[in-house]
Amino acid sequence: MRDDLFFMGEALNEARKAFESGEIPVGAVIVSNEGEILSRGFNLKETTKIPLMHAEIVAILDLHRNHNMMYLYGCTLYTTLEPCPMCAGALVNERISEIVFAAEDKKYGACGSVFNLTSDRNLNHSIRVRSGILREDAISLIDKFFSHLREKDA
């Protein structure tokens, strides 16, 4: 059985890298069915000036650069924030088996909070979704980021 706390901790480490880079602190790791971390990612939107570079997309791109895999059957994505519609759609297309997220995204969440793309019967794949692992840690990091941002703007 996978160690959810360990893998979400690794996603939080990625989120901390985003924070240190001035990015919204969201991090992700993709884990194989055997429990191996296949890829990592954190938000790079501001750094790259490419709005698509969410943590989940960065992790997907990292996986495809380093592994000869077409689809992600049997893999789990651990991410510190519920994926948005763009990321959830990409994960459906990737055929990932499971998403585990720490905190809900009450504005853009697409894994059950606002939208539910991961189990939409009109799509060609559905994804198991679990949430709440290290939720408070993820929320604390995001709150700290936006608090610092407000202080800069004041």
List keywords for this structure.
alpha/beta, five-stranded mixed sheet, 18% strand, 154 residues, 5 strands, globular, single chain
Report on the structure:
With 154 residues, this protein is of the alpha/beta class. It contains five helices and five strands, in the order H-E-E-H-H-E-H-E-E-H. The protein starts with a helix and ends with a helix.
Radius of gyration: 15 Å
Helix content: 40-55%
Shape: globular
End-to-end C-alpha gap: 47 Å
Give the strand line-up of the largest sheet.
2-1-3-4-5
How many strands?
5
Q: What layout of secondary structure does this protein have?
A:
Layout: H1 4-20, E1 27-31, E2 37-42, H2 45-48, H3 55-66, E3 76-81, H4 85-94, E4 98-103, E5 128-131, H5 135-153
Helix pairs in contact: 1-5
In a nutshell, what does this entry contain?
The protein is α/β, with parallel strands linked by helices. The chain has five helices and five strands, in the order αββααβαββα. The relative contact order is 0.16.
